[in-house]
Design brief:
Elements lengths: L6 H11 L4 H15 L4 H14 L1 H4 L4 H10 L2 H10 L6 H17 L8 H21 L4 H23 L6 H12 L6 H34 L1
Helix pairs in contact: 1-2, 2-3, 6-8, 7-8, 7-9, 7-11, 8-9, 9-11
């Protein structure tokens, strides 16, 4: 048995440990594995190209990342902060509670990709929450600013996680249905989705309370 192709795993481990570019590490490991397995370089490249082409519809979603990068470069975060600074009565707590409800509702009707960390939290929600916190409480220490960003990301996670199960045509509901059916409980996806509503409401109330409590703590930290 030829164990040399397993060196590809070592390349991945070492490359990530040394913090090299992840894309270069993965591609290098794939090429090394193919060559060590006895394939010529052209065959390895053909295999990589074929795999990319077969999964091109999944890869299309990554096109949004350079778009977001360009928008940020030309002032998207600054404009988001300016909107909040000019909005009367806006606070970090109110903003994130609103986003939590928006995230849950849109996920519940199947629009789970309308938000998210790269396309919504980083360029819009986090800068707006930070600007609202500064507007309400004054200048904040760097540590507290990072906590505001973390709370923004957590709000997106909670909203999506507890909202998407209300939409019955989603993989998580089908997984739950399959597990329960294996134990003899035959439920339709719609029945499972309906029972996800109370959980989503509890998640909204609990995390909404955490957001408002965090907003109050920020006021004490700023003083």
């Amino acid at each position: 048995m030829n164990y040399w192709p397993l060196l590809g795993i070592a390349i991945v481990v070492i490359g990530f440990a040394l913090r090299f570019n992840p894309l270069l590490v993965v591609v290098g490991a794939a090429v090394a594995t193919g060559v060590l397995a006895g394939l010529d370089l052209v065959s390895v490249v053909e295999a990589l190209g074929s795999a990319f082409n077969d999964n091109r519809y999944i890869s299309v979603t990554w096109i949004i990342l350079p778009v977001i990068g360009l928008l940020e470069r030309y002032g998207l975060q600054e404009r988001a902060r300016a909107v909040i600074e000019n909005l009367r009565g806006a606070t970090m707590g109110k903003l994130l509670v609103f986003y939590l409800g928006f995230r849950q509702i849109t996920a519940a009707i199947g629009m789970k990709d309308i938000g998210g960390h790269p396309q919504a939290v980083r360029p819009l929600v986090a800068p707006m929450a930070e600007a609202a916190a500064v507007k309400t409480h004054g200048d904040l220490p760097e540590e507290e600013r990072e906590k505001v960003k973390a709370m923004s990301a957590a709000t997106d996670n909670v909203g999506l996680f507890f909202g998407e199960d209300i939409f019955f045509a989603i993989a998580s509901i089908l997984l739950i249905q399959g597990v329960l059916e294996g134990y003899g409980y035959k439920l339709t996806p719609l029945e499972l989705a309906v029972w996800a509503i109370p959980t989503a409401i509890c998640a909204f109330l609990i995390h909404g309370g955490r957001i408002l409590a965090f907003d109050k703590r920020l006021g004490r930290a700023a003083k």
